[in-house]
Specification:
single chain, about 800 residues
Length: about 800
């Protein structure tokens, strides 16, 4: 019986090619997003599933309680609690700790490269089920000054040669022996993000004794992650009861961070880290771990898009019921039961969904999603569970698309199906379907407007005026090299202007803040600061509204002068910039310096943030970037000379440079996010247009005789097209009347998150309406023109 249903469904799909193509195409577009959401959720489900004892493993997190009553949850906890947990609590079988995510330069095999890593417990590999390609999981990190590399880090330093037993020198920390290479595949299936090198936790006391690492680092609850495994006979209740007393022990007598009243420890089950509550601060798996809220939003978006496509299928199926009514009537006269009619329709919709799903799977790698999501899709394991999810999803789609028309047709009596030609009465006429089409186009125009607003804002953030020179400026990362030596060498290249240096990149500011006060011990404000060379304002076209740049001072002498911006002047209470020049201020309440000049406010951060008070200090030891003006035209030749010059000065390091305008564009244009949003809008609009096309196709088919008679009576092609199109044009105008204000409001909410943003003008709204109208009218016009130009004799004869 099922095979007969399949054969009949395939014949119907072949017989009605246009309707089948519309259904398959709209379902394919929506299923690409649905498959992406399904695989992202599957990826999160897979994380930590290989863990040997997931039900017994917990992470100790920290809640910071602030003096104002607020609290913040962090995924970290102090390093010292590891020993206390193992020593004082019998229900704890083992403890694993990860400490101090670091970035340093590593020298090995004659190569000096930047590398990120962590200090980790020696039992990390065993407890988390992470194997080693080379080395012993038991002994690789049991001794001080040992390290394990990821396969990528091993290739960067040693190529195809085995790194086992080789020496890796971490700048400022000394030499470490490579004792293993990680199994990257198993690490990818863990929520842990550990960088390129794992250093034994036993090395930490050694580095503290030599002064390479401050002992205060270990006491900082924001630098370490603690995991514990309970004994088989224990439960979470014992751990929950022990943590408050442990919190009190570690809080007592400690100097807590400013504005923090206390902190307390909590137990977080390993299974709650992924697909759990909102992401905690300082999450070690940041970028890899996604919260249940984020996955729910993804699932909701996918369901809405899928519902739109399934509505198209239902809409077309109900519209085609006029032609299939007698078919169903004959089936029922011959004894077919209602369930068999429903099975026939659902079988056809499921086959359509299956064909769409295969096409969507083929298109999935080409969907423009953000890189993080594409990584999740790529790393999702295709196994029996995923295959079962996809099969159930395909069946669900078939049921969602085919059940309503099957139920409507199957519920009518055979006599009614054989006699009635008014299948549109099945769902109360066109009103419901027209309302749903309006809803589709309303959603489409909202997404188009939001996508246009997002694009304009990203372009403004990427190319707008930041208040400093960005064109013709190259930035070169010093990577610990001498700034004056490089400046002297690079200055000899033709076309290079006056070179300057700073601690950060303008427009990409990442440095910390410093307290700034007009009088020691009195009220202070928090200001951002960066270290700048004396000629930085001149080279970068920063306007000095009062005073001058840094004066000369003795080499190695104490810091004596600073530059501040207009916002700092205002916040410190001076009536004008001129009155602030020459005044003394205190930095961090311990260093008194004089204000040499005031620069006009400029966006040293992203456009999303308001300009904060800024202090520019002359600290040559903190310079990390050179700003190199280049006025020539041959950029390729200049880059070759710049690389050659760098290799003479630092042959062991690769040169790291970029054009400032290009770097700002790449950082602030958010091309992946904008492309993804545009893709969603395209899918929504395409599905809406396909649904509209189906409705128009049905309408012109049932009005063929009317069109023929009108043409015989003298109506022209234009008159006929206008007659058939106007009701659908009104649908588009209705969608625009609702969608444009909604899109404007949502766009305004989005722009409100930026301190500096574009405005939503009439041009943006008209552009959104134009895109929708062009595609919608195209769908209407194509079908109406086809029937309007036909020979009226053929139309009447056909009827």
């Amino acid at each position: 019986m099922l095979w007969n249903h399949i054969k009949i469904s395939l014949r119907n799909i072949r017989r009605h090619k246009l309707f089948s193509a519309i259904n398959i195409l709209s379902l394919t577009l929506s299923l690409t997003i649905c498959l992406a959401a399904l695989m992202v959720i599957k990826r999160q489900y897979d994380l930590d599933r290989h863990h040997p004892d997931p039900d017994l493993t917990y992470r100790v997190t920290t809640d910071f309680q602030y003096e104002n009553g607020a609290s913040t949850s962090y995924a970290t906890s102090p390093l010292e609690i590891g020993d206390a947990l193992e020593r004082d609590y019998a229900f704890v079988e083992s403890v694993v700790q990860v400490h101090n995510r670091f970035n340093r330069y590593g020298l090995a095999n004659g190569k000096k490269l930047g590398i990120r890593g962590n200090f980790v417990s020696s039992n990390l590999f065993e407890e988390f089920g992470i194997g080693l390609r080379q080395g012993s999981v038991v002994s690789a990190l049991t001794r001080p000054r040992t390290a394990v590399l990821t396969p990528e880090a091993a290739r960067r330093y040693f190529g195809d040669r085995s790194p086992m037993g080789e020496t890796l020198t971490l700048e400022g920390w000394g030499e470490f022996t490579v004792t293993g290479v990680l199994d990257a595949e198993r690490l990818q299936q863990s929520h842990l993000s550990l960088g390129g090198v794992l250093v034994s936790l036993e090395s930490l006391p050694v580095l503290q004794q030599t002064g390479a690492i401050s002992s205060a680092d270990a006491a900082d609850p924001g630098r370490s992650w603690t995991y514990l495994k309970l004994e088989q006979s224990s439960d979470r209740q014992a751990l929950e009861e022990a943590l408050p007393s442990l919190s009190e022990r570690f809080t007592a007598g400690q100097e807590l961070p400013e504005e923090v009243a206390s902190y307390r420890f909590r137990a977080q089950a390993l299974g709650d880290i992924t697909m759990g509550p909102p992401i905690l601060r300082s999450e070690i798996g940041a970028g890899k771990v996604r919260s249940s809220e984020e996955l729910a939003v993804w699932g909701l978006v996918a369901f809405v898009i899928l519902f739109m496509a399934c509505f198209n299928y239902t809409n077309l199926s109900v519209a085609r019921a006029l032609k299939r009514a007698r078919e169903v009537g004959v089936y029922k006269v011959l004894g077919a039961l209602r369930g068999q009619i429903i099975t026939q329709f659902v079988t056809q919709s499921t086959l359509t969904a299956a064909a769409s799903l295969m096409l969507a799977w083929a298109l999935l790698p080409f969907v423009p999603l953000p890189q993080g999501l594409m990584d999740d899709i790529r790393l999702a394991q295709f196994d029996f569970i995923l295959a079962a999810w996809i099969a159930v999803f395909c069946l669900f789609t078939g049921l969602l698309a085919g059940l309503l028309p099957a139920w409507l047709l199957g519920s009518r009596s055979p006599v009614e199906m054989l006699r009635s030609r008014k299948s549109l009465d099945l769902i109360g006429g066109l009103k419901i379907r027209k309302s749903l089409v309006v809803a589709q186009f309303t959603l489409s125009i909202v997404m188009i407007v939001v996508a246009l607003v997002t694009y304009r804002q990203s372009q403004y953030a990427a190319t707008g005026d930041y208040g400093f020179q960005r064109e013709g400026i190259y930035t070169l990362s010093l990577q610990g090299q001498d700034a004056d030596l490089l400046r002297e060498e690079i200055s000899g290249i033709a076309g290079v202007g006056d070179i300057t240096a700073a601690s950060d990149l303008f427009g990409l500011f990442t440095a910390g803040d410093v307290t700034l006060g007009a009088n020691r011990g009195e009220e202070v404000l928090h200001a951002d600061y960066l270290s700048a060379d004396r000629n930085l304002p001149q080279v970068m076209n920063l306007e000095l509204v009062a005073g001058s740049t840094f004066p000369d001072q003795a080499a190695g002498g104490p810091e004596s002068h600073v530059l501040i911006n207009e916002t700092a002047v205002e916040r410190l209470g001076w009536p004008s910039a001129g009155e602030a020049v020459g005044e003394n201020v205190w930095l961090a309440d311990s260093l008194q310096v004089q204000i040499a000049g005031v620069v006009r406010d400029f966006n040293y951060q992203t456009k999303s943030l308001a300009i904060r008070p800024l202090v520019m200090r002359h600290l040559p030891g903190a310079f990390r970037h050179l700003y190199i003006p280049y006025t020539g035209n041959d950029h390729e030749a200049f880059q070759e000379e710049l690389t050659s010059t760098w290799e003479r000065v630092a042959p062991q390091l690769p040169a790291s440079y970029n054009r400032l305008d290009r770097r700002l564009y790449e950082a602030h244009s958010h091309e992946e996010d904008v492309a993804s949003l545009g893709y969603y809008a395209l899918i929504a609009l395409s599905i809406a247009c396909l649904g509209l096309l189906g409705m128009v196709t049905y309408t012109v088919e049932v009005r063929t005789q009317e069109v023929g008679i009108r043409k015989v009576l003298g109506a022209g092609t234009g008159n006929v097209m206008r007659l058939l199109s106007m009701e659908f044009v009104w649908l588009l105008l209705g969608a625009a009347a609702v969608g444009l204000p909604a899109g404007y409001w949502i766009g305004q909410q989005f722009l409100g998150t930026y301190a500096y943003h574009v405005s939503i003008g009439a041009g943006t709204l008209l552009a959104g309406f134009g895109v929708m109208a062009a595609l919608g009218l195209g769908a209407i016009g194509w079908q109406t023109w086809q029937v309007a130009r036909r020979n009226p004799v053929e139309a009447i004869r056909t009827e």
